[in-house]
Amino acid sequence: MVEIKIIRVHHNCFFSFIYSIIILSFSDNFYFMHRLAGRFLAHFDHSVIHFFRKISRPLARVALFTVFFWFGILKVFGYSPANPLVEALQRQTLPFMTFGTFIIFFGLFEMLIGVLFVYPGFERLAIACLIPHMVTTCLPLVLLPQVVWQGFLVPTLEGQYIIKNLIIVALAFSMAGGLHPWREPKPH
């Protein structure tokens, strides 16, 4: 004989879905239990996926804003640990500009990217700014190999810092994949 009790618990603080806790007292009906567990797992899986779909875009916005704004403001005030690397790259690519001027503009540019990502409707502009920023950020992999590589395909800490930008690019592109295509305005 199988006895089933389903208890539903609402947990509004963190998850916006209902947990189902199944308590079984069983004898020999394994197939029934297996099907019931499968239904529970399917419901749980659906609820978790729905929850992540609901929070993924706002979470991506906050993450991109945090990284770009925080790292940008550190550059503006001269506290960024990346400043020596940025200065070495700037000397090779823009020798006509002083580093003090460049790092402030670069930091402000990063802060702008962060702000653009946080506001809905500005994703296209944020990604348009992100692309040249990422190209610039990856230049040390080629132009400063003595700083970013300690051996063949063995990056230094600075190299790892740069290579991790692939995650930022992937996150930004996944946000772009969720955008709706622009429509041409209808003539009046």
Structural class: mainly alpha
- In whole angstroms, how far apart are the ends? 72 Å
Residue runs with pLDDT of under 50 for 5 or more positions: 1-27
Total number of strands: 4
Strand order of the largest sheet: 1-2
SSE topology sketch:
Layout: E1 3-10, E2 18-25, H1 30-76, H2 83-93, H3 99-118, H4 123-138, H5 140-143, H6 145-148, E3 149-151, E4 154-155, H7 157-163, H8 165-177
Antiparallel strand pairs: 1-2, 3-4
Provide tags for this entry.
2 domains; disordered N terminus; two-stranded antiparallel sheet; two-stranded antiparallel ribbon; 4 strands; 8 helices; mainly alpha; 188 residues
What does this structure look like?
The chain is mainly alpha-helical and about 190 residues long. It has helices at about 30-75, 85-95, 100-120, 125-140, 140-145, 145-150, 155-165, 165-175; strands at about 5-10, 20-25, 150, 155. It folds into two domains: about 5-50, no CATH class; about 55-175. The chain is built from eight helices and four strands, in the order E-E-H-H-H-H-H-H-E-E-H-H. Helix 1 (about 30-75) packs antiparallel against helix 3 (about 100-120), helix 3 (about 100-120) packs antiparallel against helix 4 and helix 4 (about 125-140) packs antiparallel against helix 8 (about 165-175). The radius of gyration is 25 Å and the shape is extended. The protein starts with a strand and ends in an 11-residue tail after the last helix. Mean pLDDT is about 85; it is low at about 1-25.
